[in-house]
Structures are given as structure tokens and as C-alpha cells.
Amino acid sequence: MNSNCIAIDLGASSGRVIQGRLIEGKFELREIHRFMNETVIEDGQLCWDLDLIFKEILSGLIKCKSFGIAPDSIGIDSWGVDFVLLDVNNEIIGNPVAYRDNRTDDIMDDVFNLISKEGLYEKTGIQFMQFNTLFQLFALKAAHPKDINGAKTLLFLPDYINFLMTDNLITEYTIASTSQLLNVHSRDWDHELTELINDNRGMFNPLIQPGVKIGKLSQNVEDNTGLTEVSVVSVPSHDTASAVAAAPTNGKNWAYISSGTWSLMGIEVDGPITSDVALKYNFTNEGGVFGTIRLLKNLMGLWLFQEVKKLLGRDYHYSELISEASASEPFKFLVNPNDQRFFNPENMIDEIKSFCRETGQSIPQRPGEICRCIFDSLAFQYRQVLEELKEVQNIPIYAVHVVGGGSQNELLNQLCANATGLDVYAGPVEATALGNLMFQNISLGKIKTLGEGRRIIKKSFDIRKYSPMIKPELGSKWQFFKGLVY
Fold it and tell me: 325: which of 7, 100, 200, 273 is 20 to 30 A away, CA to CA?
């Protein structure tokens, strides 16, 4: 039951083309191509360079051909909420604006004037964040109504790449579920909401589930890469959906953190939870695999650390900063990582210092102190989400599984264990690519169930365990942190 597949994993800062072979019941991964993905300024807006992204994907597939790789299938995943609009000729209308652009500043209240916050949450179960697709579309409609009126099709970013790969227009369920345009109960488009944007229902494609074959590579892609007769498969195309699918565990009593630029923390449930308590704590109900719902919160995550590293430049390596943070005094400085001021500041270091100053704390000066502030604050934020989850869904949670690139941060893993009092299991690093590959293999008939796929992943990679080492100072520091958040 061996296979040879290609996962195209697009992140907001980089993209990869990864070969995944299933051999004798284990996955083997090989990075074929990596490229930077950065936003560009177009007409005063923060945008994605989709032409460059697709060019880099083709470069990765050309390398596959030159390395003698004959893939059975290809799957694409990316971050959520961002989209393109296509006209009747399937050409992009306007700019592919990035979610960190400021066009959605103050737009949420305009939407709440048309539908109450409570009514919107009952319909969608989605966390209120200003960059959700719903709010992006409202901002676009206000600024460029002709773009909305001239649109024939809306595609999320992985759907658009699938279109470039196959010439087929599809919309995959897990990526659409991030939009705040789906009805969380019917798990389909909510036409009352889509009609607030445009009364053209045809703009929103029927949804397909992960594991469906979209089509063969187009003639154009075959000509450019030399690959022939390769199927493109609909995987869980929201990267978090793929990452959670790859969590190497089974059962119900565990939480996950998909750790990277964002920290996506939550639990897997069978149905949506749109209670008053879930609304109060702003939890999101995103589409999972095999009928599950990912009840989670989007947390700012390692974005703060990445921005600090960018400001420090080449003088510091990530591992050096983590080492300095480990040697710094614990819990001396704390911030609320999810405060809106950290979303896209001009200078992250200055913003962290200002937060500490404004909340009566001493001010971190050395790079290690600033990074320790970030990691301590993230660990407390994980504890906060766990406590909220217990109120929303009254089930015991015995462990936390950290997957994704952030699972390599040993200091943060240990701090998470200390703050939550739970065992933390870290890995695999390439969870998103593995979830992508799992569903290609489900489509190929090589893997039958989610449980089987997770067992294969657990057997294929080392998972590191971190047990809590509770320290007395956490009590008062925890209470101070809660005052910063609530």
C-alpha cells in the first residue's frame, strides 16, 4: 500500500513543496523546494503576489520531475480567510489583498448594524476577527462596489491555486469554514449572509469535502513541469485543518495547539457549540475532517517573536534568542499577546515595551528579556484558553498536543506544561503537510480512516513529552496576567 505524493504547503511567510512517501506503513518526508512568501504594496494595499507564488510552485514541481519523482497525486493547503474574485473570463478582479491590510479597520460595526453580533455568531459560530472574509468583503463592497458586482466566482487562495493547476473551479469545505459565511449547522453557505454581499448566489461554489479528486494537471502545467497524468486532490486545504488531522492521538480528552505564526488552540468536537459562553469567550467553530468541528481560538502566537527577530536582524539567530530567553528571569514581564496592538505594529519591540510601561511593569530591555516576555505570556494564554474551554465544553482534558513549526521551541513547550499543569506532547513539526498527505492517501485508497492515518503518523515520527514542573511564583503572576486579558 505504498504511495508517493506531493504536498504544497503555503504559509503566510513561506511556501514549501514536500514529497511524502508512504512506505511499509510509515511516512517519509523530503522537502523539494522552499520559497519566501511576503506581502507587497499594490495601490496602497498589502497584497499577496499570487503570480510569484504560482511560479514558485511550478519551480518545485519542475524539481520533482528532475529528481525522478513521479507523484501519484498533489494537494494544496494554505492559511484561511483570504480570497480572490474572478470575472466571467476567470481573471482576477482587483488586488489579492492580505488579511493584515488595514482595510477592515472599524468595519465590524458596519456589519453589526445589519445583523446582530449574537445572531451572526448563532449562524456561523465563528470567532470575531476583523480580517474574516465576511468583513473583508464588506470593506471591498464599500470601497469598490464594481468589483463585487462584476464578480462571477469567489475562490479562497488554495482553491485559486487548484484552479491554476487543473482549470477546475471548486471550493473546499474546511477553507470556506474560516470565512464567517457558512452556516455552522447546515455546514453550507448561509444565503442570508452571502446576499448581504451580493445577491449573485452563483459567486459561491458548491462545497466539496477533503479527499475528493479535483482533476488532472492542466495542459499548461504539464507543459511547464513535465509531469503528466497526475491528479490534484482536495485535501483539508485550511492549513490548521490539515495540522489538526495529523495530531498523533485518538480519543476525546486532549487539546491541540497548531503552533506557528498563529497559535490555533482548541479541541475536536462532533458538532458546533454556539452557546452564550462560547460567544463570550469568542471561540470559533471551524470545519474539521470526517464531520468533526474544530472548536478553537486564534491566538497571535509566534508572530510576536518573528517580528522581534526581524527587527534584530542577522545579529541574532532564533536558537540564540530562545537560549537567552531561557536564561532570563521568568514571568518578570507579561503582555496580552492577543491585544490588537500586536496585530501589525510598526515596531513590535517598542509595542511590547509600551504595553509593559502602560500596565505598571518594569520594561524589558535585552533581547532575551523581550523574548522571555513573549513566551511566558503565550504559555499563560494557553492556560487561559484551557480554562475557557472547560466552561464551554465540560469535558476533562488530560494532555496538550503541540504540532507545527512551533513544536520545536523546547522552552515554550516546557512553559506550556508548567502553566497548564498538563503533559505536553510536541510534534510532528510538519503536521500540516502530513494532514495534506494523509488525505491524498485516503483519496488513493491507501488509508481508510482518520484513526489509521493518525496511527501511521505517530509511528513515523518522534513525539517528545514535556511534563509540568510547577513553580510557586506562577500563582500571583497568573492572577496578574488574567487582569491583563479580562
Answer: 100
